[in-house]
Predict the structure.
Amino acid sequence: MKAMIDTGANRAFISYQALPIFNTQQFINPKQKSASLAIFGSLDLHVVTGDMSTSIKAYVVKNLCVECILGMDFISKYKVIIDVDERAISLCIDGKRIMMKFNGNREKSRHPARTTHHIYVPPKQMVSIPVQMAIPSAEVLIRPSYQLTRQSPMILLNKVAVVDQQTTCLSIYNPTSYYYTIPKGIVLRTTTVPTLSFSKCISVDQQLVDHYICKLTRHIKDPVQKEAVEAVLRQHEKLLDTSKPSIAVNVKPHEIKILDHPPPSSRPYSSTPHKKEEMYRIVQELLYHGLVRKSYSPYASPALLVSKHDGSWRMVVDYKKLNNITIKDNHPLPNMEQTIRRLGGGYQFFSKLDMKSGFWQIPIKEEDKHKTAFVTADGLYEWNVLAQGLRNSPPSFQRVMGDILQPCRQFSLVYLDDIVVFSRSFGEHLDHLQQLLSILSEYNFQLNPPKCKGLSWYRKCIPRFASIAAPIHKVTNLTKENKKNFRWEEPQHEAFLQLQKFLTTSPLLLDYPNDNYPVILTTDASKVGIGGTLQQKIGGEIKNLYYHSQVTSPIQQRYDPIELEALAIWMCFQRMRPYLLGRSIIIYTDYCPLCNMMNSTVKNRRVDRISILLQEYNIEKIIHIKVTTTTTTLPVKDNTTIPSARSKSAQIEQHSAQFVVNNSLDIERIKMEQANDPIIQEKIKEVTKNPSKATYEFKDGLLYKLLTMQAKCSTKKKLLYVPSSMINDLLQVYHSNPLSGHFGVHRTYLKIKNKYWWPDMKQSITQYIQSCLLCQQFNVSRMKKPGRLQPIPPPDGPFQLIGMDYCGPFKQTPRGNQYVLCITDYFTRWIVAAAVPDCTAQTTAEALFNDFICKYGVPAIVLSDQGTHFHNQLMEAMSKLIGYDHTYSTTYHPQSNGMIERFNATFVPQIAKLQDRENNNWDEFLAPVVFAYNTGGHSTTQYSPFQLLYGREPRLPADGPITSFTFRKPNDYYEQLKKSMKLIHTHARQNTPRKQQQYKNRYDKQRFDLHYAINDRVLIRKHGMKNKLEPKFSITPQVIIREQHPVYIVRDETTKIETQVHANDIRPIYGSTTSK
């Protein structure tokens, strides 16, 4: 707060506007009726002078010229002496006189800040404006001009600025949708030179401080030593007061250096009403404590809530996009090996200090605060302090702590927010603590009193500790009511023996991390436990750094596999934080979907929250490895008996014999089925009457078919006649059995034809295989896809039917473009292409309106695919508002919009040939390539799109002079143009169907045109498969409910979901099958 000492004032006053906006009435006493001024009330104002505190009764008034006035009552009470030459004041407190410097300006305290030239502020943007004022050089407080805020929509905020040679720069934001002009010489702000700074209140929560001091010293047995330590802590009580946050002063603020990239922004995440209220409460609390402020920044990162262990909520910000463009800070972290070795130098007394919310105590550079902006459902805010999740938070915090504690480097070690003080004697240790705590107090830091927590430290040295010890934990972690159920049985004894073996055999030593190599974290998870191993690969040798494992809770055991694997990573990061912060990290996991969790959302809330919490770490990449190479979380029994090779061989032979017997045809069953088959019985009678002329043979109670296997061979082969009741059983063995491999008709027929026979055998085999559901789902057809070409009838004129599609993403250009929106007219083949930074719905709507509709008018029909950038509420509302029909092509069938797809395949190679790959300027060549396409002849219409649109040939740079035309009347040119356009359009209408028919004949050649009826059962093709072993077609059958060939609407028999598919992606189900 800014205060002014006024010898002309009898009392101390404070402005009502300078008080906190929350709970103001709690500390304002009722106003006195005899007061001559309009006084709200009074309060006790605390003034901090170094380590001393003073207080004075101050009256609260409205619209005071400064925030606080200290009058004669304060001057008399503390015998204040004002030294003008030394620019300082001195106060007498408890018999001691204390000197305070101030930065008061001898000239007038207020100066106008005027613009130096005309300023044009674009809509929805913030610009920096140079202003002049009558101050040579100073650090000043600048407030918005009252008249400007009343008469202008421009937004200006209070700011502390540095004036150099009567000039400084201010930021102004234009919230309107139009340009705003600020004339030269306008007073934008009022400049006030700062005076003394006083604290509103320095009272500490004495009860909380006493509790912490008692907890910190309760382990000291010597009463003299305990009293001495308590005395040191009492001198620095403010460090232990965690009732309210504090921000360090006079430290290097955090800087955010980014690449040349447009400001990333995101929309707020959707949330429940309860979470919105909780988010609002947290943000208001941060605003109250000054940790955040309202923002008008073009940056916007989404904020969300993460639950704590106690059930409360913590706000985190998803800074993925900002971190991707942030330049890495390579400030080193302390070497762990050297740190631990240094502590072994004969020191006997140690103290460990921990910083309370360490990152929040570091301020952010004023010019970079807008980059930390985060968005919630209630508005946009930006941090005044170092936020968690920013890429360079750990090295920045380490730099600050190393700088301020440089005088204590001989007896202290700093690792991020942990400080260790070490000494050889108790007296020396007290002196060291006093020095270090004094420095922390000077810079207004705040400590976090350590928490006592019992840890099973052996798990750092034992891999799979949690899984091995799980049986022991099961009986030792019983509640008080269930203590009677304690049972020490074989699993507990076995776990105890394994732990004993680990603790009594080598090696148990871990290595120290090497700062020159990345660390490798390998994690795994199961329903029993989660764990991980931290390693480094140095010179081809693997060094173990840390083991972590823990048993999963009953709630965690219900997690999905992807959530369990992500939880394993997060828990390892929490335990291994000192080893991981500031280092390059490579993560190995056996769960492939987690490989991109740090670059994009996984569409799983738990996993996405964990990825946000991991943003402060320098994770280089996440690599998928096979299951056999990851860290196992299941204990291995040492007494497991390994079967011998001979016993294994016997088991395999026995299993194979059972397999063959189970799948062979039983002769007795064949006899019985032949006896029940009337057709076979008729054949047996014929053979019995005239065996010499029969083509069958009846022997040993079985009927055989006699066939000549080769044309010139007289020998006939006997083939067993299969009764009709056993045909499916036989085909089950020779087709669906694993040893048969689900091969096709030809291979199956070759296996059977020399052993068995029945009428129409090949046709039966064909029908059986066609009805095999597995074959229909997995087999790849070598024939052309069914469905013939259905040309789109050409429209009657230009821009009645247009198609549009996105092409990209390409490499981002310096102008931020990554995609191309292509629009084509189905009559003239005219192309419009716009380079855009993304493919969102808003970008699509703006490009369609600005680049097409505003230039060529409103089309009758717009054709596009069903991507989310085209099929959304914004585009639907735009079509209704402007007045055109939006039609969508069939999913995964780009031929429906084939004209625009063909152009995409044409222009990409042309741009690739022209671009400068070093500068990546492909978007500069987009317009010339489109012009070349539009002015070239089209094979379908036989005219160029330019001719069909403008009725004349284009004039190219290499063409000669324009041929002169003479028209006697003013409208002769118009009449001539109408005739030319009519003739050209007529020829184009005739040429287009003829060419379309040629294309159709070529496409339809040797292609089936299958038609399906309503209620037909079919399978539909699956797209976007990542695993080659997945079925090519849907697992569950689909039923056709509507048809408009070649497009059909099908409904899933199980889920009842309806889908629109093209005939190309349909495979008929020929009938039920007995195969499995």
In short: The mean pLDDT is 77. Residues 972-1004 form the longest helix (33 residues). The CA atoms of residues 807 and 904 lie 6 Å apart.
